[in-house]
Structures are given as structure tokens and as C-alpha cells.
Design brief:
about 325 residues; alpha/beta; 13 strands; 6-stranded parallel β-sheet; 7-stranded mixed β-sheet
Length: about 325
Amino acid sequence: MLTRYQQPLELRDVPEHVVGPGDVLVRVEAAGLNQLDEKIRLGEFKAILPYDLPQVLGHDVAGTVVSVGDHVRAFRPGDRVYGRPRKDQVGTFAERVAVAEQDLAPIPAGLSTVEAGSLPLVALTAWQALVERGDVRPGHQVLVHAGAGGVGSIAIQLAKHLGATVATTASAANADFVRSLGADVVIDYRNEDFEALLDGYDLVLDSLGGDNLAKSLRVLRPGGRAIGIAGPPDPAFARGAGLNPLVRLAVAGLSRKVRSQAAALEVGYEFLFMHESGAQLRELSVLVEAGAVRPVVGRTVSFAETADALSAMASSGVRGKTVVVF
């Protein structure tokens, strides 16, 4: 549980979630660690994602249905499910969690609970960037930054499945790994400049922000788009999130520079804060069962190790995802 920003998580006994008529109570068996959890812990998203502390973190869940609300029709006790809970139900670093029925999907056939627990947030992020917003099609050129990471490892596979030529940035040690996921072009970010090597790309998925995002704009063709998941947030996000006018004004200021750079280059910039969707997970499940997309679990930790593993995410060097196993 997060009791103070910038402090480690604490292990506490808390009341069990209230199960509403449209909710499913899930016994948590695996929960992926995400950069979003760490950014919330550090207080970096306080303005755009406010929580009243204390707050249980955790945005991925895989487990078994314990009980269902009166209005639930798609699931019953004993079903194996996975999903990404919505904002007011976040808290999968716990023994049980209540999740809205429409945010869950059955675990794909042949997938372990740990593998399923690694997928929801990163798979939905990749889907929403490449399919929902990017409309990636055969012949497109797509650059995925940090290809060995959680989002990157899924985005490479999905972009390749969609028929794109895929470039990615990774360390030399991870070059063969990202090629095995489907990357056509691998750029060693420590020793090579992707801006000097790439040109005319249709889409960039940027998970780093800052100078990396500015350089990404310059490898796009006119009309191409950069989709950022590390920020800065843009006015469209602020409106959609229902932020108050003062925060919306501040958000516009944060992204003004990059939006101006994009406009000058005749390209687009969008901030993506992924949303929960059981329907999209069901579509992704089809790809997983067909072997087009496979989860990448680089490390598992026990529930007792959650706080330390989350704090160490930035320096862990884990391929794919770290998953908490209950």
C-alpha cells in the first residue's frame, strides 16, 4: 500500500473491496509490475491521476473468480480471468480485488496465470497505440522505442503481425532478443543515433519522452505520428480525463513545445494514457492463442518482494515484465 509519495510501499491489512452488482471478485494469483505504478508511487502523476492516500497499487491482474455481482453474466466462480482494472478499482497488489465485468477477459488457452498477469496494461497500451490510434497496416514503417521492455516487447510483435516494418532501439545485449520478437531494424541506443539512421516512418511509439521524443518527430514522414506514453500529456488527454480548467491549462503548457515542434515538421504528437478494455483483451487473446503475440516474463517475485521490486524497476534491466506471484 502507498501511504506517502516517494516512499516504499507498505504491507498492511485492509478491508476487502466492495463487490458491486457489475463486479467480479478475483483471487489474485499474479500481478504485473508496471512503470505506471512506479510513477504513481513517486508522485509524478499526482496532477493528472490524483489518489487519496493510502492507496493500494497494481494495474494488472490474473487469477480465479471467487464471486460475481448480481448483474454479471460473462463470468462465474472458478473462471480464470485477466484484466486491467479501471482507476477507481486499481489495487491488484492484494489477495483479492473487485474488477468491473467489462474490464476482464478469460485467460487465453495455454497461458499460465503468471504469463497472463504480465499482459493487460502493456498489451492494451500496444493495441491502443498501434490499432486504435495508429491504424498500422501492411507496408507501414513503425519505430518502437525500448523494444526489450514491457510495452516494447509486445508492440514489436503486434506491429509485425499487422504487417509493418519494425525498427526498435535496444542495447546490444538485447539485439538478438528483439529480433526474435520480429524487429527488422535494431539500433543500439548506446552507440548509434536512431535519428541519423531512420527516415520516413509512419509511426513512432515513444516510451522515453524528453529529447528522445523530439528526435522521434524528425524521423517521421509528413503526416506521420508520434504517440508518447511517457508524456508530456496533451490537451486532448486533459479534456478526455475531465481535468479541471487550471490543470488543463497547465497540461497544455507542458506539451506546447513538442506540439509546436510537431506542427513545424508537419507531423502529429499524441499522448496515450491507456484505458481498460476487456473487449480489446479478448481480441489480443486470439493473437496470443494463435502464437502471433507471446507474453515476455523476465522475472517473478513473491508478494513480500513487491515493494523492493517496484522501487528497483528503473535499474532492473529485466526483459519484458516482472510479475508478482501470490
